[in-house]
Amino acid sequence: MPVEPPPVGWVLPDPSRVEAGRELIAVGADLSPGSLLAGYRSGLFAMPERGLIMWWSPDPRGVLRPGAVHVSRSLRRALPGFTVSVDRAFADVVAGCADPHRPGGWISRAYRRSYQRLHELGWAHSVEVWDGAGVLAGGLFGVEVGGLFAAESKFHRRRDASKVAVVALADRLAADGDPRRIVDVQWATPHLSSLGVVEIPRTRYLAALAEALVVPPALADQAPGAGPSRIRWRTT
Question: Is 0.70 surpassed by the pTM of this model?
Answer without folding.
Answer: yes
